[in-house]
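Two entries, shown back to back:
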Amino acid sequence: MTSFPPRVYIVGAQKCGTTSLARALENNPEGCLSEPKEPNFFSGNYTRGLEWYRECFSDLDKVLVDASTTYTMCPLSERALAFKSGRQKQVGVPGRIKSARPDALLIYIIRDPVKRLYSNYWHNRKFAYEDLPLMDAVERDPQYRHLSEYYGQLSLYLEHFDKSQILVLKFEDFVKNQQHYVNVCERFIGVNETASTQEKNENKSREYSPLGQLLMNLRLTRKLGHLVPGKIKQAIRNRLSREIPTLERADEAKLRAFFKEDQTMLHENFGIRY
């Protein structure tokens, strides 16, 4: 089959190191990561058509990689679907990928479900998408839970793909030995293994001040951000934010109870659990 549409998809989960993994695979001379890294073609941009999608890749002769985390953001309940109308675009993604690329290879990197949810919550707080306390936010919007229900998301892919086409990795293992798991992914997608490309993973959430939130959401800030030296950018970030609070034990216990059944199914089908 031709290189396009892409054969390789890093489908999520959000806040689990997908950017680091995608960049590592891009460093392989046989790989070509899309620009932007998350084109979200099979979700939000599906109506733009294949020609638009093709333009996201600079070298069609290489192994093309799409790392859109929206591909495992399907609302798993009617309540979550109704919360935001735009979520309808994330329904049916596995079938669209199957139609475009039946031999697709899917990499799903996951994280302790409670820690992923907590990081997701503070990500939304940082950009002022969320203003409720944690447990109130989780109660209002079930999608926080759905994005950490890994088997629930995978089950939608298993309706279209063989299990052998899906590689599930633990974020915690990836952080401890990044190069080893990059090589695991390279073997999975059928490219030559690279030497060390270890890089720092940037998934630490922070609590931003009102001024910090304002700057984060200004379009001008995003456009000019790449012009600011990294050390200066980090110093500004530290001045306008602080480390997020520790998750309360009582809240953690309640959240873990949410994921018990999903974790059982994940272990039974993929041999992984937290």
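entry 2 starts here
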Amino acid sequence: MHSVNPDPARRIVARIADELAAVGWPIERVELPEGEAAKRLAVIETAASELARLRVERAEPLVAIGGGALGDSAGFLAATYLRGVPVIHVPTTLVAQIDSAIGGKTAVDLPEGKNLVGAFHQPSAIVIDIAVLRTLPERQRRAALGEAVKMAALGD
């Protein structure tokens, strides 16, 4: 799956696919649009149809590689396909690493508003490589750090 920030996500997808193939694990890729465009029911329907075409079974995990919007969509897809399949998050943005990949909140948007259709579906694992953050634009890193400070100030 691909995400908000395609360049690091594409490199990570390629590296993971190569490493898993080297040990004999088959990989199938289902790509979602970048950013908020991924958070539509039509996208979920298309992706679920692709999973059905691939004959994905309940024990086979989806690996969501990307930012927060991608994680929300992939998590929702995992929560609803076959009434729930495992999902592994590999967040490639700081906000996704500190917020959206954690807690199992999944959702997609409707024209009437954000995150109106969703489910709670805990990830089986969250794999974070902080070196990916070096590939992000400085402005995006600063904005994410601001979000982290806000979360810390508002939280307990």
